[in-house]
Amino acid sequence: MVQLRPRASRVPPSAMVDEGQPASEEEEEAEHGLLLGQPSSGAAAEPLEEDDEEGDDEDDDEAPEELTFASAQAEAREEERRVRESVRRDKTLLKEKRKRREELFIEQKKRKLLPDNILEKLTTAGQTNIKKSSGKLKEANLQKENEDCDKGSDSKKAKVQKVQSVGQDKSYLALRLKGQDLRDSRQQAAEAFVQNSLYGPGTNRTTVNKFLSLEHKRLPVKKAAAQFLNNAWGTQKKQNAKRFKRRWMVRKMKTSKK
Amino acid sequence: MGEFKVHRVRFFNYVPSGIRCVAYNNQSNRLAVSRTDGTVEIYNLSANYFQEKFFPGHESRATEALCWAKGQRLFSGGLNGEIIEYDLQALNIKYAMDAFGGPIWSMAVSPCGSQLLVGCEDGSVKLFQITPDKIQFERNFDRQKSRILSLSWHPSGTHIAAGSIDYISVFDVKSGSAVHKMLVDRQYMGVSKRKCIIWGVAFLSDGTVISVDSAGKVQFWDSATGTLVKNHLIANADVQSIAVSDQEDSFVVGTAEGTVFHFQLVSVTSNSSEKQWVRTKPFQHHTHDVRAVAHSPTALISGGTDTHLVIRPLMEKVEVKNYDAALRKITFPHRRLISCSKKRHLLLFQFAHHLELWRLGSTVATGKNGDTLPLSKDADHLLHLKTKGPENIICSCISPCGSWIAYSTTSRFFLYRLNYEHDNISLQRVSKMPAFLRSALQILFSEDSTKLFVASNQGSLHIIRLLEGSFKHLHTFQPQSGTVESMCLLAVSPDGNWLAASGTSAGVHVYNIKHLKLHCTVPAYNFPVTALAIAPNTNNLVIAHSDQQVFEYSIPDKQYTEWSRTIQKQGFHYLWLQRDTPITHISFHPKRPMHILLHDAYMFCIIDKSLPLPNDKTLLYNPLPPTNESDVIRRRTAHAFKISKIYKPLLFMDLLDERTLVAVERPLDDIIAQLPPPIKKKKFGT
């Protein structure tokens, strides 16, 4: 092989020696890679390097180390084992983390729930369903000793819910949250359907102002449009118009001054 | 009569909610009306169209269907998916049962009155059995693809017609399967992108199904073959409701443009037996969508987004052609929504979800009769009190001294104490109100503001003593055993000894507060009471009924007064009896015991008991006589009823002190300004 590129900087031989060792290892491994069936292009690229490095190593004039196949195989197996170990460790760590989080969640949920004795009462109470707002829970008289009740009720969502009244103790009411979201969304969708079909696009609607103004126009004694006759009409629009006019005047004054 | 300064109040921003459903009950001649805020009102059509009962609304309860079942039971279904039965005696909701089909769009009771059909959002039609105390789910019919928006039973109870989006299905009740599916054109002889919504169906006994849809068509279908028989295009906008009469010879439809059309079955030629449906009369009494119509044997009833309830008696069905056959338009409430504190010149306005407290302005100017005096101090909006929760406020009151405000919803009762320092006011809530005070129908404070009287819907009357910042329950008057009748109106005498309470049917009970027992009962009258008041000093109880009769009963003597007997013998003037709106408030002059001040929506009247009574020949509505008129004319026209129609429409009128009146008006234009948009109409020349 012809050496096409002259070496610009001559690195001191000691450094070369150090480099040489890992380089030789790589060489060996590359060779082994070749034996083990690695792609030839990689092997093809390697010989170039090998030659160059062998060119550097020629200063050292050391024979490359001899590594048996068995040792290299053992090394490779070591490597694989190490990788497998690390993966397993990662997995267990993740599992632990997840477990810890689950426990934390369960604890929080338990804290949110009402204490056991109240839950017992709920399951044995009657089936009357009364709708109450959760805001009432905060103000209803709680005749229990523990304050967990208060915490539990305070953290509930403030929406109208179906409740079950507890048998003899009617001073507070419990909420059942399951299914309420679905019901609300369905009700909203139904209301949106009616709104859309009556007032949505494609319907021929007009404002009350225009409607009444048309009537005024058709009277035997014609009257002005409703928005001018009634001072309370369109107050927001009038306010906006006033503000805009003021700003426009200011702008006009500024430009005219210049 | 005297000279008064009148505070003309127009800042009460009262907007009633639109009417969504109407249901007519033939046996009792009553009309149930449900509004968009969930309120259900019951009108007694034979008692001069008076609203005798109402159920307060609820934010989440979007009622879409209302119907009467056998035995005076009222059911409603709404978009929250629940079927609600109303207890008409106790004036509360008996129970709410979830239909588990999603939002409920339509409901129909079978002709025999024992089964209830419900059309839901998921396309299922559910059949319920009406048991004596509840309803029970029986079975589901075949599920359809889109929501069931309208339902109708065949008079024999064997088939039903269900209108959905773009098609109508006919079901067989026994098997529950769909027998026919009739597809509806999206547009009259054309194609449109918007889906055709079948807003109403009606099933006649000869098998004809009448459908009204959002394309403006009224179509007649033959249910045996499932084919279209006749098509009427009557409007450019939706036709939203249909109601058939019991004899099935006429039906009425309401459109989104506000027009109500009457269809009748007439013979083709004068002596042939063949009949056909012809559109006979259009009525334009509404400006906005007519979302509900009903057909009583003699009248067409319609109600819609413009909040009026219009009852149009049909000329050919009415037997006696007198004033009863005129058009009735119910716009203003039949209850008092305003209370007044006379000492501090405060007004409390009751809305659906909040209360407003205003202080009246004052003026130092004086002027002649008819002058408008400039205000030196404007009216002040002192307080805006929002209620917690989705329920509507049923009733509210402010004490005469202005330091207590009380209001009630279905589940709670609220009492507040107001403190005034200079121009500021501070509010303090009295907590831990007892549970038996909730669902109060009427709240009243005594004249010295030490006692609170609450009439609950269970028929009991509670007396609470008010102390500084707290209260003490004094006594409860229980109703007569066996009857659960809700007390609707209360009146207390200014000296604090007597309390009068009127229910819906029995007579007016008068209780002695000092001894806490029933004193006497005014004999029952067959028309409901619209207003009650007790006069100072004389302790005469003045009662106004819905047929415009006014009685005066002396409480200490336990009998009607002389004046009352005289006027009953002579009878009221015919024009007085022909007024459409009920008297909602009665008050008295502190220095003139012979004067009674009362008002209804379009007039206010001062009755002078010392002057002679008018007979039918005299002029009832005299203009104010000028001083230079001759004595003869003045003597001829002077009678006891001094009526003024200057301030209208009146929601409230009261005497603040000897020389001041307050009149709260609500012009119709201001209500119309806040309604939803109407349909655009193309008019020639605009």
UniProtKB/TrEMBL annotation, chain A:
Region annotated Disordered, chain positions: 1-100, 133-163
Occurrences of domain U3 small nucleolar RNA-associated protein NOL7 C-terminal (ranges): 172-234
* InterPro entries with a match to the protein in the record: NOL7_C
* MF annotations from Gene Ontology: RNA binding
Identify the domain of life. Eukaryota
User: What are the GO cellular component annotations?
Assistant: nucleolus
Q: Which Pfam families match?
A: NUC129
For bias type Basic and acidic residues, the affected ranges are 75-100, 136-157
Regions of compositional bias (Acidic residues) in chain numbering: 47-65
What is this protein identified as? Nucleolar protein 7
What species is this protein from?
Puma concolor (Mountain lion)
This protein's encoding gene: NOL7
TrEMBL record, chain B:
The reply to whether Nucleus figures as a keyword in the UniProt entry is yes
Where is the protein localized?
A: Chromosome; Nucleus, Nucleolus
Q: Transmembrane region positions? A: none
Output a single Gene Ontology CC term carried by this record. t-UTP complex
Q: Which GO terms describe its molecular function?
A: RNA binding
How the protein assembles, per its UniProt entry? Answer: Interacts with HIVEP1 Interacts with NOL11. Part of the small subunit (SSU) processome, composed of more than 70 proteins and the RNA chaperone small nucleolar RNA (snoRNA) U3. May be a component of the proposed t-UTP subcomplex of the ribosomal small subunit (SSU) processome containing at least UTP4, WDR43, HEATR1, UTP15, WDR75.
| Name assigned to this protein | U3 small nucleolar RNA-associated protein 4 homolog
Name of the gene: UTP4
